[in-house]
Amino acid sequence: MRGNSVYGARERTQADKANDCFAFIFNARPAALMAMTAERLCADKGVTNRQARREIEVRLLAAQDRERRRA
């Protein structure tokens, strides 16, 4: 993890957790992407910030829509 020091790893912020969600959205296989809900993804990654949750939901729904159109 970046930011390591002699005192140990730094605490993960909400932005780090949201970036994990975005990485999942962009790298997931189609079946996993279609099966995921925004609430479950945020819960799995530990995102509690309301604004970040909205942004994740928007990106997830857009990715799912692109996948539906492709199929």
Summarize the structure.
By secondary structure, the protein is mainly α. 69% of the residues lie in helices and 0% in strands. The mean pLDDT is 91.
Can you describe this structure?
This protein has 71 residues and is mainly α. The chain has helices at 14-27, 30-35, 38-45, 50-70. Helix 1 packs parallel to helix 4 (50-70). It is elongated and about 50 Å long.
Strands, helices and their partners?
Blueprint: H1 14-27, H2 30-35, H3 38-45, H4 50-70
Helix pairs in contact: 1-4
- Mean of residue pLDDT values: 91
First-to-last CA distance = 37 Å
Q: Helical residue percent? A: 55-70%
Sketch the topology as an H/E string, one letter per element. HHHH
Task: Offer a few descriptive terms.
about 0% strand; mainly alpha; 4 helices; single chain; about 70 residues
